[in-house]
Amino acid sequence: MALDVEPAHTYQWIDAAGPTHPSLIDTRHVTGDLFGFLNIPMAIWIDEQGVIVRPAEGASIERSPMRDIEIPEGLPERMDRMFREVKSIPDDSAAYRAAILDWVTNGADSRFAMSPDEVVAASQPRGDDEARAAACFELGEHLRRTVGDDAAVPWWREAHRLFPANWTYKRQAWTLVTTPEGATENDLMQGPNDVYEGNWLDDVVAGGGGEHYVVRPALDPTG
Amino acid sequence: MITSSLRVSALDFSAATGWDPKPQGMCRGEVCVPSPGALIDGMVDVEQAAKSLGMPLVHDDQHGVWALGSATATGRALSTAVAADPTLIDRDGNPFKLSALHGRKVLLVAWSTY
After folding, report:
1. Could you give the CA distance from residue B54 to residue A112 in angstroms, rounded to a whole number?
2. Alpha-carbon distance A70 to A68, whole Å?
3. Residues 146..205 of A with a Cβ closer than 8 Å to B: which?
4. Which residues of B, range 12-31, sit inside 8 Å of A by Cβ?
5. In 3D, which of A169, A171, A164, A170 has the Cα closest to residue A134?
6. How many CB atoms are closer than 10 A to CB A208?
7. If we measure between CA atoms, which residue out of A117, A166, A158 comes closest to residue A3?
8. d(C-alpha B98, C-alpha A14), whole Å
9. Residues B62-110: pLDDT tens digits?
10. pTM of the model
11. Are A58 and A215 in contact (CB under 8 A)?
C-alpha cells in the first residue's frame, strides 16, 4: 500500500513489480492515522479474522543494496553525508522476514503474534500533538487537491511542527516541492527548500542520525 | 475526516473515522467510548464525538472546512486490535476495503515513491 498523494506516481513501480497481491494507494495517509505508520517501509500484520497481531513497525523485507555500497570519493558534501546516514540505518530485514514466515506457518502460535492487549500497548504513542498533526496533514491534502498547492503549505508546516517524528508527512511535502516538474521519479535528496523548514538530511541528523530513523521491530522477546 | 458541516450522518462518520456511532457510544471492535448527546436521529454531532474520543478538530477559516484528527482515548495509535477498515483505492482506481481480505493473513506494508 503506497502512501502517495498522487496515485499516478506509484504506477510505474507497481507495474514493474507485477504483484499477485492487491496493490493499494492511500492518497490521504489515513492508514498512518488509523494504524500508526510514520515512515516507510512499515507494516502491520492482520490475521484471518481482521485482528491486528503486530502493530506498525519497521518492515524492511530485504537488505538494501545502499547499505553495502562503497561511498565514492569526491561526492558533493551533502550527498556524501546522506550516504553515510543511510548506511547507518539499522537493518532488521533478515529477522523480520523470518518472523513473517514463522507467523505464516504457525499462525496464532507464532511467538511473533501478539495478543490484542499487547498490540494496543505496543502501538505508536498518540497524544494530542500527533492527533492534531493528522488533522492538519489531511486538511492540507484536501486543500492541495481542491484549491492548490499553496493552500496546503501552512497546514503541512503545522503537521511537521507538531509531529516531527512523522517522516511520511515530511517526505511527502518535501518531495512535492523539490522534484522538478516533469521528472519521472521523485527527488530522493529532499534537500533544503524555500517552502518548508526541514529537509531529509538535516532532520535525520537532528533526530540523532540514521540509527534512530526507523521504528525497529521488537522481534526478540528478551531484547 | 474532512467535513464542511459539524453534523454528519452516522454512516459517513463511521466510514471516515472507523468509529461506529451507537446508542452506547462511539464503538470500534469491542471498545465503546461513551459519548452522550453525540448521536441524535442518525446524525452525529462532530464536536461532541470529537470531545469524547479525544479527537482534535481543526478549522480552515478561509475555506470553511474542518478536519478531525485521530482518537487519543488510549494514548496509543490503536484503541483496539480490531483492524480499522478504511476505503483505499487499487492500482486501477477502484475502491478497496481491507475487509475484502478477511479469511487470509494480511501483511499490510506501507511504502512510497519518495
Report:
1. 31
2. 7
3. 146-147, 151, 155, 168, 171-172, 174-175, 185-186, 188, 190
4. 18
5. A169
6. 9
7. A166
8. 18
9. 999 999 998 998 899 999 999 999 999 999 999 999 999 999 999 999 9
10. 0.93
11. yes
